[in-house]
Specification:
Length: 371
């Protein structure tokens, strides 16, 4: 094996030295923590035997960390290490140090690509306007995957007062929120499985009504919820009208950011404006708990203009539309890289066939039902 690129003076790496409890405690020390770097998320989506974590220390103190999902062929150095919204490198109470990011990336590449022969594939929590981070990624041997779509989202600045946040919303959004507040709606909030089960029932109605492909498996997140420690659990908000659930919201808040994960409105609750009230309650909670950013988690003006306008008007003057930097790959072994590319091509073709099948079913005339 060729000599690996060295880390800076005082830096050292530890791999797979922590248990789940200690990892969950460490996660709370980072401003860029998210549910995608929790132990249960990786264990549920990849399997507890297919995960690996890395710590970067400087002078004995942890300064960066990352939790990876491993997918590889048995008894072979062929596979992928997946990282989502990692590495964590913005320690709470400290100024973000680009040097830490550089050595964290170098350590990850050394461990997963060079030592293990895997393709290191990761989606950093970085946006296109962060040019200095892009430069570090390129210098450390990470290649941007240009032909893969880059998601967009809206970040809402929560540092203004609640009054100013409300005043900054779009006119129609403020009007709908006021109407929701006058509709006598009831809000139920918590983290228990019964609330999650109730939300799933409403979410299924939304998926069927809108006919969209689910970006995440809601049942996986329900299982993740059951394994998260109380402090890191997702929160469920349900809105009731006349005793019936009309809308729901599932969200997560870690580090300095709150992010909505799933939203739903029942077939009978479309005119309740419950979804407006739930977002406002979420913002109020984030403000009280001293979070500074609300990530509205995805917008696409072309494919879903209605949702785009809803979220844009919610954030209003305090929102900033951004584009994620996208996917990056790093590799050392050619065989692993070629196998992964073949797998990518098969996955893409399979996805297109599924999309065609869904479109065909949607266009198929429905049988008439005698009345």
């Amino acid at each position: 094996m060729p000599q690996l690129p060295k880390l800076g003076s005082g830096y050292e790496v530890e791999v797979d030295t922590l248990n789940e409890h200690t990892w969950c405690q460490l996660l709370q020390e980072f401003d860029d923590a998210s549910i995608y770097q929790t132990w249960p998320y990786v264990a549920v989506t990849a399997g507890s035997r297919n995960m690996s974590h890395l710590l970067l220390k400087k002078n004995g103190e942890v300064v960066a960390a990352a939790l990876a999902r491993i997918a590889k062929l048995p008894l072979a150095r062929i596979g992928v290490a997946y990282l989502r919204w990692a590495p964590l490198w913005r320690r709470r109470g400290f100024e973000a140090n680009p040097e830490v990011l550089r050595y964290a990336l170098r350590a990850l590449r050394n461990e997963f690509a060079c030592k293990r022969g895997l393709v290191l594939r990761f989606f950093p929590l970085v946006f296109e306007d962060e040019s200095s981070v892009q430069a570090i990624l390129a210098e450390e041997g990470f290649t941007s995957v240009e032909n893969e779509g880059r998601g967009r989202t809206i970040l809402m600045d929560l540092t203004p007062t609640l009054e100013n946040l409300r005043e900054g919303m779009g006119r129609n959004w403020k009007r709908n929120l006021k109407q929701a507040e006058q509709n006598g709606l009831e809000i139920v909030e918590g983290t228990d499985d019964e609330l999650f089960r109730t939300f799933v029932d409403v979410y299924k109605q939304t998926v069927l009504r809108k006919g969209f492909a689910e970006p995440n498996d809601i049942n996986q997140f329900r299982l993740i919820q059951s394994q998260l420690p109380e402090r890191l659990k997702m929160r469920i908000l349900l809105c009731k009208s006349a005793g019936e659930v009309c809308a729901g919201l599932v969200w997560s808040a870690m580090g300095r950011t709150g992010i909505e994960l799933f939203a739903a409105t029942s077939d009978t609750g479309l005119n309740s404006r419950g979804s407006h009230l739930l977002r406002w309650r979420f913002i109020d909670w984030l403000k009280r708990e001293h979070f500074s950013v609300y990530n509205l988690n995805g917008v696409n003006q072309e494919r879903n203009p209605g949702t785009y306008k809803f979220k844009r008007d919610l954030a209003g003057k305090n929102g900033r539309e951004v584009c994620y930097l996208g996917r990056f790959d790093a590799r050392d072994g050619l065989l692993s890289y070629r196998c992964v590319k073949w797998g990518d091509a098969f996955k893409t073709r399979y996805g297109k066939l599924k999309a065609i099948a869904r479109a065909s079913r949607a266009l198929r005339p429905r049988p008439e039902v005698a009345g």
